[in-house]
UniProtKB/TrEMBL annotation:
Homodimer. Coiled coil: none annotated. The lineage of its organism: Bacteria, Pseudomonadati, Pseudomonadota, Gammaproteobacteria, Candidatus Pseudothioglobaceae. Residues 112-178 form the NIF system FeS cluster assembly NifU C-terminal domain. It comes from the Bacteria. It comes from Candidatus Ruthia endofausta. Keywords: 4Fe-4S, Iron, Iron-sulfur, Metal-binding. [4Fe-4S] cluster binds at C150, C153. InterPro entries: Fe/S_biogenesis_protein_NfuA, FSCA_dom_sf, HesB-like_dom_sf, NIF_FeS_clus_asmbl_NifU_C. GO terms for molecular function: 4 iron, 4 sulfur cluster binding; iron ion binding. Involved in iron-sulfur cluster biogenesis. Binds a 4Fe-4S cluster, can transfer this cluster to apoproteins, and thereby intervenes in the maturation of Fe/S proteins. Could also act as a scaffold/chaperone for damaged Fe/S proteins. This is Fe/S biogenesis protein NfuA. It holds the Pfam family NifU. Its cofactor is [4Fe-4S] cluster. Belongs to the NfuA family.
Amino acid sequence: MFSITDEAKVYVADLFAQQDEKDLGLKVDVEKAGTSTAAVTFNFCFPKELSKTYQKFEYEGFYAYIDELNFEYLKDSEVALKDAGTGKKLTITAPNAKGEEPKEDAPLEEKIKYVIAANISPGLASHGGFVELVEITKQMDVILNFGGGCRGCSSVKSTLEQGVGTQLKARFPEIKSVRDVTDHSNTDNAYM
């Protein structure tokens, strides 16, 4: 169901050793499970504060607590330690957190929204940004709106043309163009 690489186990156990708190555990949750905006979170916790639906998993140096309601969303998940610039960071691959990918015969709008949420938005989120589908025109133009750190960002044009648009057109060849209707005049919270 949920695996942690050996390197990640050592890293997490070291974090717990630094806390010097008795009975401290690792709470693993899936926020908005089964939706396109699902996110897996890790937090320190005291088991006595958790509901009875949380099950305990023992690892060397720490215990993890996972809500049984999230088991299906954490199926085939893996926690690993990855290089992040000058240090390391925990990452999780959770292919089932967002639920099932729409079927081949699902409406194009539903499939595009899923790809944006599952494949595109996580990359934009690292810069505090996001993108959402506004509409698909009769001419098969995909109209998008950028927000957060992407609104007003000087790189949004290349993000649209070389990133988002390229991914969507490769996945859905029936798309003629991908356009941005965002008002980028306000750059107060822009990433760049």
